[in-house]
Amino acid sequence: MGRYVVRRLLQMIPVFIGATLLIFLMVNVMGDPIAGLCGDRECDPATAAQLRHEFGLDQPVWRQYVTYMGNVFTGDFGTAFNGQPVTELMGTAFPVTIRLTVVAIVFEIVVGIVLGVVTGLRRGRPVDTGVLLLTLVVISVPTFVTGLLLQLLLGVKWGWINPAVSSAAPLDELIVPGLVLASVSLAYVTRLTRTSIAENRRSDYVRTAIAKGLPRHRVITRHLLRNSLIPVVTFIGTDIGALMGGAIVTERIFNIHGVGYQLYQGILRQNTQTVVGFVTVLVLVFLVANLVVDLLYAVLDPRIRYA
Amino acid sequence: MPEPRQEPHEPERAVAGTGMGATMDLGTSEAATLEQPPGPDGTNPHERPRSLWTDAWHDLRRNPVFIISALVILFLVVISLWPSLIASGSPLKCDLAKAQEGSQPGHPFGFNGQGCDVYTRTVYGARTSVAVGILATLGVALLGSVLGGLAGFFGGAGDAVLSRITDVFFAIPVVLGGLVLLSVITSNTVWPVIGFIVLLGWPQISRIARGSVITAKQNDYVQAARALGASNSRLLLRHIAPNAIAPVIVVATIALGTYISLEATLSFLGVGLKPPSVSWGIDISAAAPYVRNAPHALLWPSGALAVTVLAFIMLGDAVRDALDPKLR
Known about the structure:
heterodimer, A: mainly alpha, 12 helices, B: mainly alpha, MetI-like fold, 11 helices, elongated, disordered N terminus, transmembrane (chain A)
């Protein structure tokens, strides 16, 4: 186990460097970061050169990357061009997005798994077909369409929710946005649980449990569900990174001031430091979530041993 | 976000995630050669053995889901090639005086915020979506299966490097990458969007192709062909490719739907296509502020987009069911 963790941690290093370097290069192609600094007029050449030197933009790209990463590992994510430290932006943005992601994951776990169990146990019945069709529709409708439609119906027409989330973003205002963010993954979790339950229902240990005379709910929760949830846990784990990155669309629709909002603003205003900083953290979250899922695997399924 | 899904991706995992479509390991060769059930209509089992493809086609022709989605897709392709068949006006002819008006004779879907005919724009929007979806999928499938196939066949250092590169691409959120890369591009054609999707989409196919080539190359007939002195290119093209291509086709068909939705998402965020191009994403984004007064301007393009994506995903589902012998 210990050796496995070390190997995985070592494997994460090239992926981390590669992903951050890639985004660093992409952002550097983004155009002239100085251009936005002198208001609507163009900077005069002397000021531009001075600013470039000040921000280290006259160095070759690889030098900029190395310097930047060196700073990141001492906790300095640089300053946005408006003078605010990027860490300060993160301090306000990440709690909001984390709350949103938690709401989304709770939806995935509760609704997705319940629907998956119900349909998996009733394979081929009308409930199953209906839910299966519904998941197909949810997967097909792009998130921004789902978001706009729910906003239109619940927020504008029926007035059940506030169409825009306030800047404090308390949990109760994040329920509908969380559902929108979760929708596609929710459908995948349902299908995954359904397949897994339907497969394991025919297995020997379930037959044994039933033959022993255990009550039905105990067979389902203790024997069937525990074994069927392994692929689902994997999916939800890898989804955490995707949800946080995918929150851009949801946050834009519901006007939530989280990570996606900051990134969108950063990209529109060509704010290199903000974009690279946030993406670096997102990549880290993604990699760590993947590692945790792999380790959880061994805990959930004792048959798996990591040498 | 219907971005191309990231598969649970660790080769170390002992149990493959099931039901996700892409992690399937199709035992194609065995299924194709060993199973020769006498046909239900009493066909002679001594006839030429039915291949996986004839079997799949046999199944598909009887699958209502396949027929419906194929008809929808055929319709979409026809109207993207010749939109004037069913829409007479120009999508760029707008009359501000009619802005936000509802349905009226000759204009069944009403008018949008700029007074353009929603029906005409919805019809013309199909072209963008279909073009992006098909061209991007072709590019992704070609690049991904060539790179992944070669890596799987030759193994070694090249394979290790390619696997790490795909890991890197999987770690970058797709919409984010699109925002960063496309926000600087001023060209207003479908090509930058297609290029971006190919750039970020190939690792998904490459991973599938690599896995299925590795499975196929261990088969006895491949070893036999090698022993008979077949060259690498002959092994790859004649023996491995036909038996490894099925999973790539399935994943590519499902991905086609998600690419269409990705293009619309990027256009919605303002970095994909920009006006005066006609795209459902642009129209939905433009209609969002007027949604209180003119919900129809939002609903029609959204509905068209949803039906299109649904058709491709359903087609992919049907093809997967037909090609996966384990579900038989």
